[in-house]
Each structure stands twice: as C-alpha cells, then as structure tokens.
Amino acid sequence: MIEFLKKAKKAKKEIAMLTTEVKNNILFEMADALIEECNYIIENNEKDMSEAILSNLSKDIKDRLLLTGERIVDMSNALKEIAALKEPINRVLDGWTVQNGLNIQKVSIPIGVIAIIYESRPNVTSDVAALCLKSGNVCILKGGKEAKHSNQAITKILRNVLEKNNVSKEVISLIPNNDREAVASLIIQDKYLDLIIPRGGEELIKFVNKNASVPVIKHDKGLCHMYLDKDANHNKAITIAINAKCQRPGVCNAMETLLIHKDVAAYLLPPLHEKFIKEKTQIKACTETRTYIDVQSATLEDYHTEYLANIVNIKVVENVDEAIEHINIYSSGHSESIISENYSTINKFLDEVDSACVYANASTRFTDGNAFGFGAEVGISTNKLHARGPMGVNDLTTFKYKIYGNGQIK
Amino acid sequence: MIEFLKKAKKAKKEIAMLTTEVKNNILFEMADALIEECNYIIENNEKDMSEAILSNLSKDIKDRLLLTGERIVDMSNALKEIAALKEPINRVLDGWTVQNGLNIQKVSIPIGVIAIIYESRPNVTSDVAALCLKSGNVCILKGGKEAKHSNQAITKILRNVLEKNNVSKEVISLIPNNDREAVASLIIQDKYLDLIIPRGGEELIKFVNKNASVPVIKHDKGLCHMYLDKDANHNKAITIAINAKCQRPGVCNAMETLLIHKDVAAYLLPPLHEKFIKEKTQIKACTETRTYIDVQSATLEDYHTEYLANIVNIKVVENVDEAIEHINIYSSGHSESIISENYSTINKFLDEVDSACVYANASTRFTDGNAFGFGAEVGISTNKLHARGPMGVNDLTTFKYKIYGNGQIK
C-alpha cells in the first residue's frame, strides 16, 4: 500500500502543472477509447454480472452494475462534458493590495491526492477519474468489489491514454484489493493522501469518520423531508410531494418523510393517499394522519430510515416550527423542501433548516450536479466544511495565497 | 461533558439568528466590560503568574501569560475591531438560475458549534469568542491550563454581557477541566460539535488529527523557508532574510531555513553572516555554506525543527528546483518566500511550492490576519481544506444552497 501511495504522491506535481489544453485532449481521447474498447468493457462487466448472479445480489444492485453499449456511450459523453467545463485551476478567487503595497491573490489549486471510496456503479470510475484529472488531482479509486472486473477494465483504458500522452499512469489508480482492511489502512495515510471521499452506506461513512486521520468529505445518506405548509397551494403541494417520493424512489434526493400542517391535513391527505396508492407507495404515518386515511403506523425508527424504496412516512405537525425541529433532528442534512405561498414562513424555513439544500416550492429531486448546472458531480456532500451539497469540479480544488512584494519587511 | 455539549448545541440556533446590530452591541458592551473589570482580570492573572513561578515555567511562557492594563486595553480594542467587520453571515456567495427556472443562491451561514483548543495566551479567549460570536457560532474554549484563572475571569465577564442581553450564556463556554482527557473526549463528540480548531504544539495536533471524529482545521507549526535566488537583488535578499528570522524569532511566521542559490552564496553569505552575528542569531549550515563562513553544521533533524528561537539553518542549493523540492519535503505548509528579480523563476516558485502563503520579494512575517487586512484572526490554518493561511471571520462560516422554485418537479 505504501509503495502504491508513494507513486501516487509523486504524480501530484505533474498533473497539477498540466495545461488545460493537454488535460482536455486527454479527456477527449479517453472518451474515444471507452467507445473503441466497448467490447472489452462489456466482456469484463459480464464477468461481474455472472458473479453477481452466483452471489444472488439484488435486482437493484445488478441493474446498477450492468454496462450496456448505451451506458458506455453515456460514460464517454460525460468525459467530453467534463472536458468542456471551465478550467477550475488558477482561478483568482479574490485579490487585494494592503497598505504596505503587498498584493495578495487567492488562487485556486488542486487538492493533491484524493481517494474516493464508492459503491457498485462502474460509471463512477470514469466520471470521478475525469473530474480529478480536470481539476489537476491524482485519484485513488476504491470501487465496490462486485464491480471489480468492470472497474479494472475501465481504469486500464484510461491509464493507457495517460501513458500515450506521456503522463504518469499513477495519476489514476484503482486499489487492487477490495476488502474493508484496504479501506482501514487507506484512511490513515495522511502523509500521502490529502482527502478521502467516502460515498455509500451509513456503516462505511461511520467507519471512515471514526478512524480516518486524512480529512474526510462524506457523502452520507439522503434522509430528505418535505413540509406542506398551511399556506401551500394545494395542487403544487400534491404534485411536488408525489414527484419527490415517486419519480425515482431509490435515489438519495428522494423524499422519505412528508410533514403536513394540521390545518390542511384534512384537505391534503385524502388526495395524496389516492395518488400514493396509484404509485404503489407504502405509507407509514403518525396517529393524527391515521384519523384521516387508513394506513400503517410509523415507528420512531421509521423517521430515521432512508428507505431508498417506494415507502413514505407522513406526519402531521402543529406549525412550521415543529416541522423545522423534526427536520433538524431526523435529517441527514441533504435536501428539504417547503411548499407554501407565505413569504415569512418560507424565509423562516430556509433560514432555520440546517441542510445543504433547502427548497421553496420545488421537488428535492433537483439536488444533483446536473440540475445545478455543474456538469458532472463527484457526489452530494453532507459535510458542513469545504464542500456541501452537489460537489462539482470546483469543489475538488483548494487555494493558496500568492503574495507579490517589492522588498517589504516587518 | 455530554450535558455541557447538549447545552452548547441548543444555543446554536439562537446565536445564528441574531441580527448584526444585536451582535455588535454585545461586542461593544464586552469591550467596555473588559476595561471596567480590568482589576478583576489582573487579580486572576496574578494567580496564574504565581503558579507559573512556582512551576518554574519559562520566561517566554510567563511573558505570554502576563496581562497588564495595556494588554487588556488591546483585548478590548480587538473586540471593537471585530464588531466593525462586515457581517459574515447571509452573504450571497454565488447565485444563478437554471433552465427550469429554479433560482439557486449559495449563502454563507455559521458553522455551528466550534471547539478551539489553544495555548497559554489569555487574550486568545476574548479574541476567539468574539470572532465566533460575530460569525454566529457557539464556541467551546479549551485554553492552556497555566492560564486557567485568567481565562475563567475573562469568560465570566463575556458571559455576563450575554446574559444582560438575554442571550444564552452557553454561546461562550470554557471547558472547566484542563487535562488531556478532556481533549480526548471532546474530539469524538461529532453529534454535538461541527468543528475543532487545535492551535499549538505538534503533539497536540497529531493527537487531535489521529483521534478526532469531528472535522479538524489544524493550526500546526510554522516551519517557514526563504530562497535567495541567483537573480535576487542582493540588498533586498539580505534585508528580507534578516527580517524574516530576527524581527521576532518566536512566532510561527518567522523563517527557520534559508536556502541560497550556489551562484550567489559567495556574495551573500559573508554579509548575511555579519548581520546574523549582530542579531545574535545562531547559524547551523550545510557543508557548502561552511566553505564560505565559519559556522556550526546542520543535521537532518535541524531542517525538521521549528526553532521558535533565534536560530537559523542555511543551505546552499543547485537551483530553484532543489529549493522547491527541499521546501515541499521539510515545510509545514505555512509560509515561504523567494527573493528574485526573475519573472519565470518567481512564477515557478509560487506555482510549485505547496504552502498556504507563498511570497515573492517580501518577508514571511506578513502571514497574519492583521497584515492580510482581515482584522482579528482565529489563527493560521495549515489545513488544505476549507480554510488555509490566516483564518478570519469569513472562514468561520460555511454555506447552504437556498433554492427558490414555483412548482418545479423532475
């Protein structure tokens, strides 16, 4: 592991110094190479798929694992989109001159060596590698073990393009062993790593948070809420709530708990119930809700659960304060939304809810790099420091101060 | 400890919501209270000073510990300066509208509950408490045990002002027990704390980094370098090098190692030697340096040492590349400077040296919040993420996205 990390660290200066032109050429060549080597990728993906069938992995995981010609075209296009992003390095973020004439410039620079721990989707491999390359960072990838062959194939193709362009292959590397011990030894290498980004399950995040000495930007679960206020437009409230839960229940920005003001519960619950039935959504609800509609009761545990499935909790609240309090206790700090036409209530909600993304009158489903206009994304940070919410290419940079003097002494 | 942290967490929303006017009034009242209670502070400081004498603490530490009337006036003025800073909260950092009409605003908000672990100087207590208050954060202070009585007195005065203004006293609290165990149990409270800022010795920083589950912004040692290039103006080179080492050797932004290009070693070393002798600076040097001036030889360990004293390492290097390489190995990432008139050499140095502050033709001594125009500072961050270099009041904020819609669904 140490030898491996030493090589990665050595490549740091090289990648940081590449010009935009060289980086973009490499990204375009990588995009082409993925298409040219499409069959090679699919062959390797088939190995993963066979093992997935043997291991009896869920339909959902198998779907995430699968690579088709079409999906590989999407991966290739993502690289071209990343090439088209504005250069993230050497942006002058701020600049001023102080009394003694020193000119201070705050300039964006790469973070250095970034390790990303992620789950089953093999397209993340090329997305994240490309985002790191664009932002001048060395990346160390640790994909899900069920995607081993696919990830190895994709990484090999990307590294070949680096080599052809006389750039160290160590700029992109995949951790060969896929066990938890590899993670455990990785996260304490603060001599070599500048950042760890864990994406995935709650247990992984907790483990990394507890044991890492390397700085962590965590991509935790999405336990998202929507609050239907007493001053909500009823049509908007129903349409947006159904969308936030049902449009794609298995993703992190889908709603898990719906809070409804007591004054509108009687009007909103029956039509919501009807629509949720049509969408085959399972409802778990508080006692008050169950006086209006005939559904299962929710436990305290349910409010703590990210279902990633077509299940929703419904709770009636006294007012916006109780909604905010509930959210600040149960939320994972990802995305929350209020539906209301009341100016002051909206402001209160947006100010007091302590989450990365707080919406007024829109679905929580917009929390992603694409919807935010960032192009590709590393993921959704639930950190409070450095990067929060959709993490784009600019969030993969840090800064230094360059200070220009002409002999100043103190 | 948990009860203590629960109370602090509870105060988070209250302080975050205070208006600029209320916060500034409190800061001005605190500034007045420090002056009014000057004798009470000095009485308590005398207890610390007596214990310091009994414990045989160094002259240096005793000087840092001492509070005089004049120093208390400085502390009071610092609070007024912090009140005068621009409001750091609710700045719109960025904003745009995406295709579907969603208006996204990136807005600065407080970080939450911040624990600061610091060393002997009691003025840090009021500085840091005021910076946290101004930025809407709850602070938990853990000062040096040698300043126990002084810190308790200062905190009590500040908390009384909070109380008089009907603000929870828990917004500012001082950890009562001062042992290492208190630190150990503090840094794993990620349920209650949003950030830990350790200022101080290498051992403390290492301990916190290794064991914390709360995010850390470290204020590590300052192992700063200066490189005198072959194209340096000789007068500037000598004046700036002497200033960087001798003006105040005990601080983190003082130079520890001076690197000199081999082509100018013969011209620069004898006059530097002469000036360093006048300043009573002890010199430790490489073999090559010792062919020009008669000084002690430096060990590898010396290049790793932050002297905080009037001692300097001198090393002759082949070229700017060797200087950059030396710095990137031995530096703590704080501040480095190049003295040169060569445009390309300066650019290379500023680009390739991986430190928070990189200077051209100026003393490293300018790395502080005041010199940068930030007013007061929390310290000098040697982190690479979130805050780097002088950490001002804006660095005590994070952000959220507020997203304004009118019915958008996905």
In CATH terms, what is the architecture of the largest domain in chain A? 3-Layer(aba) Sandwich
Q: Give the CATH class of the largest domain in chain A.
A: Alpha Beta
The secondary-structure class of chain A comes to alpha/beta
Relative strand content of chain A: 15-25%
Integer tally of domains of chain A? 2
Query: What Rg of chain A is obtained from the alpha carbons, in whole angstroms?
Result: 24 Å
User: What fraction, in percent, of the residue positions of chain A are helical?
Assistant: 40-55%
Low-confidence stretches of chain A: none
Distance between the termini of chain A: 46 Å
Per the CATH scheme, the topology name of the largest domain in chain A is Aldehyde Dehydrogenase, Chain A, domain 1
Give the mean pLDDT of chain A: 95
Largest sheet of chain A: 7 strands, parallel
Looking at how many chains there are and whether they match, the oligomeric state comes to homodimer
- Going by CATH, the homologous superfamily of the largest domain in chain A would be Aldehyde Dehydrogenase, Chain A, domain 1
Count of helical regions of chain A: 15
Q: Greatest contact pair?
A: A-B, 63 and 63 residues
Q: Which term fits the overall shape of chain A?
A: globular
How many beta-strand runs of chain A? 16
Record the strand order, biggest sheet of chain A: 10-9-11-8-7-12-13
